Amino acid sequence: MTAKKIDKYTALVMQPHVEVAEDRAGIAKNLDRAINMIDFGVGYFWELPARLVVFPEYFMQGVTTPGKGEHGIDSFMKKAIELDGPEMRRLGEVAKEYNLYIAGGGVVERVKEFPDRWFNTAFIIGPSGEVVLRYHKWHIPASIGLGTSPHDIFDEYCEVFGGDISTLFPVIDTEIGKLGTMTCHDGCTPEVSRALGYNGAEVICHPVALQEVEGVSQPWDFWMFTRRTRAHDNMAYVLGSNWGTVDYAYYPKAFCPGGSFAIDYTGMVQRHAPYPQEQVLGVTIDIESLREHRSRCNHNTWVDVRTEGFRQIYEKPIYPANQFPSGKPPRTLADKMGPVREVFSDLYGRGQFTPPAGKSVADMADLHEQRVRAAQARGTLRKS
């Protein structure tokens, strides 16, 4: 089949103000703001029409982290929504009105098949107004992510949704290119973006709620250098959307201080908003140029992949699967960190990590556990 030409278009990378919602009214307020920003963006970039919008992680509901303001599973379930609910239908109406694909992440999603927990869900809504892609975040950091990863309930999850790489890391073929999505911590390591690249992704929508403490600004800014690498490695656009500012009693206003960007398929930065304020970035997406670039063999990061030498890395599990099966959802962040003890035992036990001076291999797993208990005793991690 002969490929059809895809015209250039504008993608809008949104950097909104977010309020941490406690209930549906709070969600509605965030959603109102998001829709106003779409109205602005499609109006401003009228000469090369917008076809794709990317919102950050938790842009509707917000999220909490360790400390006085930490929420347990009950608080999250109170603001969990379904992807066929009224919030997504509102976004669907906007997608239909403007002929858009709307991507976002960090939906605190209630899934009927697993009613005792929530998933951190990224989505893409098509111009039909329907959800055309749903992705459940894979790499949820144990220390700050309470949602369930498919890996936490892996055997059961695969029985319900399937376990093929195309199911776990979906990519959709659309009239504006092949679209995929990964969420926040997914982009810190190569695997998820590589799976999307394997599935053909040309544009990776990348919603995040990335905090300054993790390095969003110079001199570290690992957010930028890692995501430029993800784009380069897969010869794909990466559209990274972060919060601009936040309202929450326990957060500084610049908790997630912007830094949203658009990176092209060579790893070059096209647009960047390196500040903690609301912004709408408009970037030209040229799928035909990407496809021509991929047709060359020189410095082609897929043509030269030689898999045989790397298989041993993945032969044995590192973070163990099925840690939170049905009836045993993670209830606090301390729960999520429980399996890390086993990971440390493995990494140090096989000699990949070397303990600090004066520590033995056996000490290292205990050290992690001691830190968790000490934080609980201080009141900086929830016990239940």
What keywords describe this structure?
11 helices; alpha/beta; 30% helix; 6-stranded mixed sheet; Nitrilase/N-carbamoyl-D-aminoacid amidohydrolase; 384 residues
How would you describe this structure to a colleague?
This protein is an alpha/beta fold and 384 residues long. The chain folds into two domains: 9-294, Carbon-nitrogen hydrolase (Nitrilase/N-carbamoyl-D-aminoacid amidohydrolase, 4-Layer Sandwich), CATH 3.60.110; 325-378, no CATH class. 30% of the residues lie in helices and 21% in strands. It is built from eleven helices and 14 strands. It has a six-stranded mixed β-sheet with strand order 6-5-4-3-1-14. Helix 1 (24-44) packs parallel to helix 3 (86-98), helix 6 packs parallel to helix 7 (222-234) and helix 10 packs antiparallel against helix 11. The longest helix is centred in the N-terminal third of the chain and has 21 residues, at 24-44. The protein is globular and about 60 Å long. One of its GO terms (molecular function) is hydrolase activity, acting on carbon-nitrogen (but not peptide) bonds, in linear amides. Keywords: Hydrolase. InterPro entries: Aliph_Amidase/BUP, C-N_Hydrolase, C-N_Hydrolase_sf.
What's the topology here?
Blueprint: E1 9-15, E2 17-19, H1 24-44, E3 50-57, H2 73-78, H3 86-98, E4 101-110, E5 118-125, E6 131-136, H4 154-161, H5 165-168, E7 171-174, E8 177-181, H6 191-198, E9 203-207, H7 222-234, E10 237-241, E11 245-247, E12 260-263, E13 269-273, E14 279-285, H8 287-294, H9 333-337, H10 340-349, H11 361-378
Parallel strand pairs: 1-3, 2-11, 3-4, 8-9, 9-10
Antiparallel strand pairs: 1-14, 4-5, 5-6, 7-8, 10-12, 12-13
